[in-house]
Amino acid sequence: MELNSVILTTGSSVGFFKLVNYGVGKLPIPETAQRNVWKWKNISTSFVHSLLTGVWSVLCFCIHPQMAEDLIETYSVFSHALVSVSIGYFIYDFFDMVINQKISHSWELLFHHVVVITCFGISVLTCRYVGFAVVALLVEINSIFLHLRQVLRMASLAKSTFYRVNSMINLGTYVVFRINTLAWMTRWLVLNRDLIPLISYTIGSVGLAIMTVMNIVLFCRLMRSDFMKSSREKEVRKEKEKEM
Hints:
Blueprint: H1 3-26, H2 37-63, H3 77-100, H4 103-126, H5 130-136, H6 140-154, H7 161-191, H8 198-243
């Protein structure tokens, strides 16, 4: 892939997600989300990215299964474009947060985006590790339900049946597509360290370590918010019923 193609695809992606964000702002926004319209638009845009790249990453391996056997050298134009599009989204989202939110409130996500842009950037520019980057994007399958959870909470639907169902699916896909994927990527990196230049190996290892820590913290927050809190609320209700 030529550098011009990478720049064009990435730049088009930035523009596309800017248009998505603008379009979301033109749609009806729940009254409870009116207090933070920027966050509603940002999460909705992230949901679109997750839906697009989550499905796209699966299609990459279905259309070009040889890539699963060689995550370093083998890739297709389709998979290379996916990684470039994702870079465009993360660049867009980085500046969207910098412009509209205090750094102190979003430094974790900003740091995450810098790590992802760096790792994916090396992949698309060198045309190596594209398959590895596509594996990383399988995480976005869980992000679909993670972002949907935030949308439902902002719409004050956290007590609905749909929210509870989404919470269960979110938890299941979190383990399968986020925790398991990161564990598998770490194992693959260690087993193939002799095939990877030291600088790429170091950047990949540090990036995966950071992602793992962030995802463990997020998993604990999800458990505490959606499951432990619900259990405590049920216990409180039972105690009140006994008192009556």
